[in-house]
Amino acid sequence: MMKRKPVYGLLAEFETPEALLDATQKTHAAGYQRIDAFSPMPIEGLSEACGFEQTKVAPATFIGGAIGASVGFGIQYYASVINFPLNIGGRPYNSWPSFIPITFELTILGASIACLVAMLALNGLPSPYHPVFNVPRFALASRNRFFLCVKARDKQFQLADTRQFLESLAPFGVYEIET
Amino acid sequence: MSAASNCAPVAPKSKEQLLADLNSCQWRALIIGIMAGIICIVDAFFSPVQFFRSYLFALVFWISFPLGGMAIVMMNHLTGGLWGLPIRRTLEAASRTLPLMLILFVPIFFGMRILYKWAQPAAVRADHVLQYQHIYLNDWFFVVRTIVYFAIWIFWAWLLNRWSAEQDRTGDRRIATRLESFSGPGLVVYGLLITFGSVDWVMSLEPHWYSTIYGLLFMVVQGLAALSFGVYVARRLSDYEPIASYVNPQRFNDLGNLLLTFVILWAYLAFSQFLIIWSGNTKMEIGWYMIRAHGGWAGLALFLILFHFFAPFVILLWRNVKRRMNTIAGVAVGLMFVSLVDVYWLVAPAFQPDQPKLHLLDFAAPTAIGGIWIAVFCRELKRRPLLPVHDPDFAEAFAHGD
Q: For position A5, what pLDDT does the model report?
């Protein structure tokens, strides 16, 4: 049986976006991998500072688009060449230029469905419960405060050491997050 | 941080160094341009017909940079956004070369009879379609129209540049509003005039054929060429101060996305024109594609499908490509070359319907015009600050920069 950790992680509160960005960079540089930053508005460079390089959403979108394109073209090819060949204005059965608009539409459809599904599957939304809300002050994350969360799942996470490290970043406060 | 090291692998060079390097670039370009120009002039005596054909192709390609550049600057004024920060001054400098393009256009006026069937009295007498078109397509009206297009473009570019300089000098916030409200109508005027211009200069080479998408296709060709040029120059300038401190992978990511948009838009318009003509399948319309999709021209058409759409489309989908400055600059250079091939494929088949026959002048003319154009561009680039520091949109970026 896996031992269940008593806390979800630690949450540090900052007063300015610059302080959050700086703290995030330092935390990532200190070797922490499983960190997350919360801000009321987008901050340029913040996701990179979290070590957030690539997501699987892009490849999933590409694959969805490729499937859409193949299905779109294939279905028209099958209908007009194999299943029910019709002579229309003396054109060849495989009149590919006329297949392109539908192929294009299905490419977009496949790509957008794959993008949406992959995004929801990977970020775990909709999520009715998240431990960070156990910290009452976290409500300010949608108003005027900036939060950095180091999760207990991180290999380097030691409650006392990590707390000490976060304190060294001059936050407004550091809170334990209960699971 | 890794982003910073990505940006400037070596210590950025100084402003003085930039000035010196721009000077040497200017002189090198001028010398190459003049040498190629001499080859053109000498060769023009042996094959005057070929001279005008190559010259028209070269001119139509190089005019993309000032006109497309002006359009993109207006787009940036209109939409705002940090993506314009590293390229605005470059493209403004490009738009200030429009008077040069008008001067370079003058030889075409002398070659009209050679280039255009509608300007040859014998051809007009033998063809009743040309007789109907004569009211619009005739020598003096062609010259007047071209001069009018240029006059309006030069006036517009002059105003945009003047206000931009005023903004640099005074820092007055209201100027940004003025630039914005002037750019909307400016884009409409640009779109209308380039539609007329492309019909006059290129489409009328084959006076029996017409397509209403043609002007839009030219806008995309010009926008793509100018944006690629902007990206390439931004990469070169980012080795120097002051640009080095303000560019980062995100800016190049934005520009890469915009390049991708232009590539897709080109494919959309080029294919729409083809699909409509292919579906209609009427004798009057298909001739244009019959020439361009057969014989040696088919190879070029395939090249364009692959390298004007598929290859850049797939490459520009990757985030890593767009965030690495050297890679995206390489893609931009490739797109400029492909645009050159595209213009050749649009113009040259009108003269050689059977096979593409590359002549020495097909290389010398673009080199001559290009060399002279780049020299004038460098001269213009040196005259203004490289960053629009008083643009309200960019203020935030400057606040964050060191």
A: 54
Note whether A97 contacts B: Cβ–Cβ < 8 A: yes
Q: Closest by alpha carbon to B228, among B48, B91, B118? A: B91
Q: Are the beta carbons of B271 and A100 separated by less than 8 Å?
A: yes
Residue B308 CA, distance from chain mean position = 15
pTM: 0.85
Mutation to test the A interface, candidates B82, B278, B324, most A Cβ within 10 Å: B278
Q: Would you call B278 and A25 a contact, using CB atoms and an 8 Å cutoff?
A: no
| Distance set, CA A99 to CA A72, A103, A126, B210, B217 (Å) | 8, 6, 38, 25, 22
What pLDDT does B158 receive?
95
Both structure tokens of B368:
């001559």
Q: By CB neighbour count within 10 A (0-12 exposed, 13-18 middle, 19+ buried), where does B264 fall?
A: middle
Q: Say what the ipTM of the complex is.
A: 0.73
**B164 has pLDDT over 70:** yes
Sheet holding A35-38, edge to edge: A35-38, A146-151, A7-14, A173-178
Residue A90 sits at the chain B interface (C-beta within 8 Å): no
How far apart (Å, rounded) are the C-alpha atoms in residues B147 and B102? 8
Q: Scanning the structure block, which residue is given the tokens 């280039």? A: B115
The string of pLDDT tens digits covering residues A91-113 is 899 999 999 999 999 999 999 99
Tell me the domain boundaries of chain B. 13-386
Residue position matching structure tokens 């995206």: B328
pLDDT digits (tens, 9 = 90+) for B284-299: 889 899 999 988 899 9
- Please name the residue of chain B whose CA is at the shortest distance from the CA of residue A18: B400
Question: What distances in angstroms separate CA B257 from CA B65, B67, B199, B326, B349, one per listed residue?
Answer: 19, 21, 30, 16, 32
For residue A64, the chain B residues in CB contact (below 8 A) are none
Structure-block tokens of residue B95 = 């738009």
Torsions phi, psi of B120, nearest 5?
A: -100, 110
Query: How confident is the model over B75-129, as pLDDT tens digits?
Result: 999 988 888 888 999 999 999 999 999 999 999 999 999 999 999 999 999 999 9
Across the interface, do A58 and B319 touch by the CB < 8 Å criterion?
A: yes
Distance from CA of A71 to the nearest CA of B (A): 19
Extract the runs of DSSP E, i.e. beta strands, from B244-356. Answer: none
The whole-angstrom separation of Cα B215 and Cα B194 is 6
CA distances from B378 to A93, B203, B373, B375 (A): 55, 32, 9, 5
